[in-house]
Amino acid sequence: MTLLLVVVFVALIFEYVNGFHDTANSIATVVGTKVLRPMQAVALAAVANLIGALAGEAVATTVGKGLVDIKFVTSTTITCGLLGGIVWNLITWWLGLPSSSTHAMVGGLIGSTVAAANSWGVVIFSKVDATKPWFAQGGVLYKVIIPMFTSPALGFIVGFLMMGVLYVVASRMTPGIVNAIFGKLQLVSATYMGFSHGSNDAQKTMGIITLAMFTATQSGELKNLPGWLSFLHTPTFEIATWVKVVCALTMAAGTAAGGWRIIKTLGHKMVRLHPIHGFAAETTAATVLMIAAKFGMPVSTTHAISTAIMGVGTAKSTKALRWELVERILWTWFLTIPATGVVAYVLVKLFAAFGWK
Question: Of 23, 22, 19, 44, nearest to 189 (Cα)?
Fold first, then answer.
């Protein structure tokens, strides 16, 4: 039971770090365009994240039981997987690079489970159901790898096209009128972005906590559980209401802490943004995230908003983007899953060496 409580605590630390690490995803554009001051934007994102986190559980179910064989998952493997994600998030936050908390968690969970089982066979690479379309299939391939490439591509293409349409719409307006109109519209798009971020990202930790309680219940670890802790007993894989509320509040608290290094990278360094650009980028990214959440795909908020900004910036001018910064961001994305997987793998082996199984 003590180890389970440690897992829940570490999972909530991950959720808090996710909140301030990914705050930039929700508010970088609205800060970069000066529509809202940083603290106003953080408050808006925190509330929107909270509401979004309570809106569903499809992503939580995918993360909790759709990526690895849960027979090999223990409280220790979950803890090591989360620690791998936390370490990576803190490193990339310190460097000001917008990396994916989603893929940090996925990589950590895969690495730790492979280490515990000493086999790659525990990874559910693909789970095909002939009665369903390709986007509704299960496993790492369909829920993580394919969306890892398709969501950024959609973010870039749709952002580029939306910006082109908005340029045509705004072509006969004065800059002052354009800024006034889209400054107000960006409040809507920023809220939409915060809601979609919460509906996708907060659910991942919900899935991890539920997985930890479910496996602890199945293994008999909670056999002599005191009555006042009975809420930890989870005989079936269902996301409890208290898990949703606690995860949502923790992410909102992390969001309120801010993530100024990454906000600076996305909102100021990559491309100069005006309200019309911010509206296009936020609306594009939020829509991509909502579609992914609908199908239970734990996609990266970071990838969606970053590539939407890239698409919007390219529509503005191919010279508007700082391509050397874009290259650094892309390398960070590709390294996230293997890096967190390796860290989690090593941690499991170290824990085993000290007899902590």
Answer: 44
d(CA 304, CA 131): 29
Residue 112: per-residue pLDDT: 94
Helix 241-257 crosses helix 203-219 at what angle (to 10 degrees)?
140
Whether residue 357 lies inside any domain: the answer is no
How far apart (Å, rounded) are the C-alpha atoms in residues 42 and 75?
A: 33
Instruction: Tell me, yes or no, whether 40 lies in a domain.
Output: yes
Q: What is the dihedral of CA 63, 77, 342, 67, to 10 degrees?
A: -20
Is residue 34 helix, strand or coil? coil
Contact (CB, 8 A) for 261 and 99: no
Of 205, 180, 199, residue with least CA distance to 304: 199
pLDDT in tens, 25-73: 667 778 777 888 877 887 888 788 788 877 766 776 777 677 888 888 8
Q: Tokens 């800059």 appear where?
A: 175
The tens digit of pLDDT for each residue in 148-168 reads 888 888 899 999 999 999 999
d(CA 27, CA 33) in angstroms, rounded, equals: 10
Contact present, 232 and 225 (Cβ < 8 Å): yes
Q: What is the pTM of this model?
A: 0.78
Domains identified in the chain, total number: 1
The CA distances from residue 234 to 92, 241, 248, in Å, are 35, 12, 20
Give the count of beta carbons closer than 10 Å to the beta carbon of residue 199.
Answer: 26
Task: Please check whether residue 221 is in contact with residue 3, taking contact to mean a CB–CB distance below 8 angstroms.
Answer: yes
Q: Give the helix ranges, DSSP H, for the chain.
A: 2-21, 23-32, 38-53, 58-65, 75-95, 101-117, 140, 146-170, 175-197, 203-219, 241-257, 260-264, 275-294, 301-316, 323-353
Domain that holds residue 35: 2-352
- Which of helix, strand or coil describes residue 341? helix
